[in-house]
């Protein structure tokens, strides 16, 4: 089980590195985080062959807008440097073969672990989303179609469901763009409600990297860009995952 | 279905009332929002008799810490003015008999609508939580036990799952304390990770009401208050729900 007594070792501070942090934070230069390592992070993250189910693929619940946008970005993966990210059931699948930082060791067990944004497996009822990432531009696009299990106000997605998906998209972007692992802060301004069953497009940019933190921004809007649903910013802490030694 | 063309009528602005808003925002004085009406909001929100399932009741998945804290606050409902809030499957159940603001009319259909924080119905796998509210102190306490479907980093709750529950607890508090309906902004600073299966206690305070907005703060920490998981602030917009006329 989780070694809870070590948890205190990973304390996250927004404006400063807290006491104790240097022990678990290898100093990463922006160059190593933002240079050629992005390609190796991406190629590790997107295995060519895997038996794992990819939840970021079209299914019968996707509306025409969602399908059209997906096809549009899939074309861009062939010509414009975009990469479609796979989405497995658990982050444990995404970091296979990598070691968590000191203090976060978790023994495997038989629980049915799921990453929160893939918690609902019935197609179309919960989260339908797919993330495309552009390694050299350090940008991501997330196509999001909320289902009826994500409701807040009747007929509309819960603000918290958008907040969680922003956090998740920031998280994957931060990892691939510069080994950002943990959310330090998340600030959201909501503008309009997202109707359940419609599509929201999240545009994420990495703004800067400074003091082992990645600063990102996001705007979520309708496909025609006429309606802004929300704007947000996120700060992530860089932490290096190391290869597990074979045993 | 949803009248999407009216959606633009409800635009949320953080620092100012946007053009068009006055038509749908009755001016509420702080007195009427924070005065005796809180009691009527609470009594409507907590029906003495209902056939609806209350998801905020102990079940076999609750750990001893969660059960003990629940009992502790249940005692306070008898002596100290706290109210245990019921938690139904959908906000449609919570606002039964009330009309949504202009532009948000939704015809009923046969979808299985669920409020996002009750999206997972298997006991212990997703969100286990219960909210207690104190009408005169304008405070809430939320007891939160994340299950394995809420995972982010292996073994720990996804930051987005905490963000969503903060939004939801703010939302219920804002409604009961002053008819706050829509999230305007949500700002979170994460400090430590919450182990899956443990208990986090969220303390919410209404800080002030100004310009038809409620300003709230939240601190989420371990039961012994030795570990702060996150701190947040939330701003909600006041909007009055009216009685539906009988047809």
TrEMBL record, chains A, B:
Recorded GO cellular component terms are: mitochondrial matrix
Q: Which Pfam families match?
A: 4HBT (PF03061)
EC code(s) of this entry: 3.1.2.2
The UniProt entry, under InterPro entries, shows: HotDog_dom_sf (IPR029069), Thioestr_dom (IPR006683)
Q: Name one GO biological process term.
A: cardiolipin acyl-chain remodeling
Task: Give residue ranges for domain Thioesterase.
Answer: 155-227
Q: Main EC class of this protein?
A: hydrolase
Question: What highest taxon heads this organism's lineage?
Answer: Eukaryota
User: Where in the cell is the protein located?
Assistant: Mitochondrion
Q: What is its main location?
A: mitochondrion
Catalytic reaction equation(s): (5Z,8Z,11Z,14Z)-eicosatetraenoyl-CoA + H2O = (5Z,8Z,11Z,14Z)-eicosatetraenoate + CoA + H(+); tetradecanoyl-CoA + H2O = tetradecanoate + CoA + H(+); hexadecanoyl-CoA + H2O = hexadecanoate + CoA + H(+); (9Z)-octadecenoyl-CoA + H2O = (9Z)-octadecenoate + CoA + H(+)
Q: Which GO terms describe its molecular function?
A: long-chain fatty acyl-CoA hydrolase activity
**Keyword set for this entry?**
Fatty acid metabolism, Hydrolase, Lipid metabolism, Mitochondrion
Q: To which protein family does this belong?
A: Belongs to the THEM4/THEM5 thioesterase family.
Entries under PANTHER family matching the protein: ACYL-COENZYME A THIOESTERASE THEM5
Q: What is this protein called?
A: palmitoyl-CoA hydrolase
Native organism: Enhydra lutris kenyoni
- Name the gene for this chain: LOC111161966
